[in-house]
Amino acid sequence: MNTATASRYAAEYQTIASALPGQNLPWLQALRAQALTEFSAHGFPSPREEEWRYTNVSGIEKKLFSPSISLSIDEVDAEWLKSVQLEDAWVLVLVNGHFSAELSVLDGLPEAVSVMSMADALAKQPGTVEKYLGRAADQSEHSFIAFNTAWFTDGLFVHVPAKQVLDRPIQVLHVVTGVDQMATTRNIIIADALAEVKVIETFISRDGVYAENLSGTGSAISRDGVYAASLPGADAAVGSNNAYLTAAVTEVFVGQNADVTLYKLQSESEKAYHFGGSYIKQARDARFTHHNFAFGGMLARSDIHVDLDHASACELNGLYLGVKRQHIDNHTRINHLKPYAISRELYKGVLDDRARGVFQGRVIVAEDAQKTDSQMNNRNLLLSDDAEVDTKPQLEIYADDVKCGHGVTVGQLDEKSIFYLQSRCVDEETARNMLTFAFANEMVDKIKIKSLHDRVLEQVLARFPQQGVNKEWL
Amino acid sequence: MLSIKNLHVSVGDKPILKGINLEIKAGEIHAIMGPNGSGKSTLSHVLSGKGGYTVTEGSATYQGKDLLEMAPEIRAREGVFLAFQYPVEIPGVSNIYLLKAALNSIRKHNGQPEVDAMDFLTLVKDKVRLLEMDEKFLYRAVNEGFSGGEKKRNEILQMAILEPKLCIMDETDSGLDIDALKIVSEGVNSLRSPERSFVMVTHYQRLLDYIKPDFVHVLAHGQIVKSGGADLALELEEKGYGWVEEAVA
Fold first, then answer.
1. Domain regions of chain A by residue span
2. pTM score of the predicted model
3. Domains of chain B from N-terminus onward
4. Nearest Cβ partner for B93 among A422, A423, A473
5. Can you tell me the distance from the alpha carbon of A431 to that of A394, in angstroms, rounded to the nearest whole number?
6. Which residues form the signal peptide (chain B) (predicted)?
7. A236 CB burial (10 A radius; 0-12, 13-18, 19+)
8. Which residues of chain B lie closer than 8 angstroms to A437, CB-CB?
9. CB contact under 8 A, B76 and A441
10. Does the distance separating the beta carbons of B102 and A426 come in below 8 Å?
């Protein structure tokens, strides 16, 4: 990686540094300075690093994305925004990395619960933020985290006190409107002992992949038109209008016997770069579930790292759908640090055209983590000869009394199943669509929030616009 | 109904069927018996349109049309039904949806309107009762997690609802205990009609105790080596396949 490029970002940093939140907090200033130094030294990750072997982010270096200094909601279509927000959730809206109180819906929150922007949290409860920021995400891990730490403009802050159970989910909408922009957000979710909360992170732009279908037009569009539908006009417009960078880091702290579910719905535009890291620390007996839907972006990378304490449990679910030349990388790491913890992981991918998927899953069982129970699976469906997947499950076990398993499949649709459906009058193309949809839908069915389930289902259905593919199968 | 003339079929370079001749008239039940590896399953697969087989010679004419030219789903819509030896599990697609989609595509093929939702439900529940199945099976994914016997019953349920003209039953009796066999056989017998024909491919004579065939053919080394009435099956039961195989060896 050439540090000259990194310094282009670093040089530009000085022009925006004074606009970043937390200027009056020496600890944060020190943290940002340290992160900037680290980023300047390394630049963005290089494919020479094992964890980035399959994902080349040099495109981000070539383009110099600029952060937006302040909030502007002029370019946010209110009607469209309404269509992507969940009606039964508290909604916090970030536009190009800045909180918009006007667009957010936060009425009726229980008194003791904090749901606010990161900038507000830094102003109102800096002590709490200091206690948690950077404690789950290690900025020496790779330079995206350092980059995020230095650059973040705002984000989501959630603190649910002990025993508090939130009956509605919290949705944070990360909306990007600008051209060649970057949206850098830092998000913290804290659930104290016995608290329960569900958070939905939606990454989206007006021309996001499958986003158009959410606007309720309901009309089927051809797959080639999935992107084009929202961008009438020349192809060139697609290339120049919607390139941007999202670099989001979310830290989650699940207290003793607390329960957190985090949904990530990534529908960035087709020219967007997306880096999203979720770093989770679970206390004793804590439960955490992650659902990761990666549909958008030209190059999208997700990191999900979980640290498991005594008898805690985590479930990681993922679905990635790649078409055209999309590159979708999911990277998970589960650290079994103490005995009796349980982890379950299932990632499924459907890759068509020249799309490329990457799955790197690591489960590390520490010497002390006896009676660990871990299962990791990655299943891939390749629909074209040019589609590719690189999958690398890794188990590192240092304890001697554990139950760990992993499995990987990469394949095409089962010809026996296709023939069976044909022999029941279904034509071959419909049979293929049915089977592909059913493969993907297993992950959609795991969504427990009905309104969210229905939205995601709409998006997956939009991926299969052919006639005959419909909800009746379910 | 079905006229097979001098049918030769290969898998890769290997000839499996070497000149099959068979005439099946409406209302008839033909049993095709034979030892393992004789080509029985190949015959049912070729008739229903499964890929991976090359017809090198001969023809199969179904109701005056060239059966071998049709895509599998067209054969199905034209009234050819294959009851699978190993029914396939289709996770994520519900049983009742597949039944309805299949029935409607047959109706569409025949220029009829879609089936009325209430009529359909009544029809399905009727047949479910006939086959002593649990209604819950309708709402589960096709064959997913079904036992061997449940899968075979599900095949007959589909057959009962789609009302095909030509039913090809591939080793329906394998994997069934006697109680399940009786239920399946009753289901099949209730479908017997002067307009409907059956080809039952089976290794075991036991099935024919419950579904009485009009004709029995013995397949060995890719050819029909002996044909006769229902009595032939009993003779085979008694003597095994050795004597017919030797007859052509």
1. 3-309, 415-474
2. 0.87
3. 2-248 (3.40.50.300)
4. A473
5. 34
6. none
7. exposed
8. 92
9. no
10. yes
